[in-house]
Prior knowledge:
This protein has 402 residues and is an alpha/beta fold. It is globular, with a radius of gyration of 21 Å. The mean pLDDT is 95. It starts with a strand and ends in a 7-residue tail after the last helix. The chain folds into three domains: 3-102, NAD(P)-binding Rossmann-like Domain (Rossmann fold, 3-Layer(aba) Sandwich); 131-200, 2-Layer Sandwich (Dna Ligase, domain 1); 206-395, 2-Layer Sandwich (D-amino Acid Aminotransferase, Chain A, domain 1). Strands 10, 11, 12, 13, 14, 15, 16 and 17 form an eight-stranded mixed sheet that branches. A five-stranded parallel sheet has the order 3-2-1-4-5. The protein has 15 helices and 17 strands.
Amino acid sequence: xxxxxxxxxxxxxxxxxxxxxxxxxxxxxxxxxxxxxxxxxxxxxxxxxxxxxxxxxxxxxxxxxxxxxxxxxxxxxxxxxxxxxxxxxxxxxxxxxxxxxxxxxxxxxxxxxxxxxxxxxxxxxxxxxxxxxxxxxxxxxxxxxxxxxxxxxxxxxxxxxxxxxxxxxxxxxxxxxxxxxxxxxxxxxxxxxxxxxxxxxxxxxxxxxxxxxxxxxxxxxxxxxxxxxxxxxxxxxxxxxxxxxxxxxxxxxxxxxxxxxxxxxxxxxxxxxxxxxxxxxxxxxxxxxxxxxxxxxxxxxxxxxxxxxxxxxxxxxxxxxxxxxxxxxxxxxxxxxxxxxxxxxxxxxxxxxxxxxxxxxxxxxxxxxxxxxxxxxxxxxxxxxxxxxxxxxxxxxxxxxx
Length: 402
């Protein structure tokens, strides 16, 4: 193989990309991360190095320089698996280009996506988004006459997770004014000083959530897009927003080609590069898909892109190593991805039509489970995954989690 692959991170997303890389090359994949996580440590397809303070810019640069010098006889494809690492790569792009090839948006573009108050202020006239207010922890500018329930989430996720506190949810659902003040105080007391996003709650259960992924090549041209209806999301306050079951190539409301082409045009117009994941919810009040956020990378559920469309690492290889270009395609191949056992699919999806479509698709094409890679299923990993499945069965018995 005339190139190497280095994945930064050790989480579920890192395992998904390691699996894609292993499926492509058949070789063990190098990972560098900050801490041990069982997704990747209990794997025989990974070689992992752990580095304390990897989020520190100087440590990050020194670590990648050392790896780059060790393998400077080959091109190294660099892949990040969370927002911290994506930002570090973009901020140090010129420095890293001596050893690595990668495809991520510029820092300027990334800031308009990752800093949520900038995202909504910059793109509210271009994209359909939920009704949104920006609250400043410094100015205390709480809007008046809010209608409940509401959603609160951090404007700057990178800064938010640097300030740990008990009950630190990814997203908060607020039922009344008292809860609103309690949650804001808890966040402010943690030391977080940036903006908070206060947003209308769009009605509908998990099945009104959708995922749309793109690969935009290094020339800034979109090559592939997927569109999937989500059936279930994580049923925990810290996991809300992370999907556990979805089906590509399907929407109860018809695959919205015009909407997908609008998102394609949007990405190309802002000079975007790399994988982009749109988190969406269908609003039946006005029949529109509302954009919650855009992740400047593949997500943990993105293996459905590989299952239905194309190996994610192969997209990068063809673009950055082989210098190939492809025309644009919307993937409409029906495939089901799940992090939960089939029992949960049958007991926890309330949308009967969607459940029937999912079971029909599973019967025809099988069920794709990203962590269950048949070439990596030794005894300790099997036990770990079995216990995860048992935990999911218990977790989804709680119907009032949200």
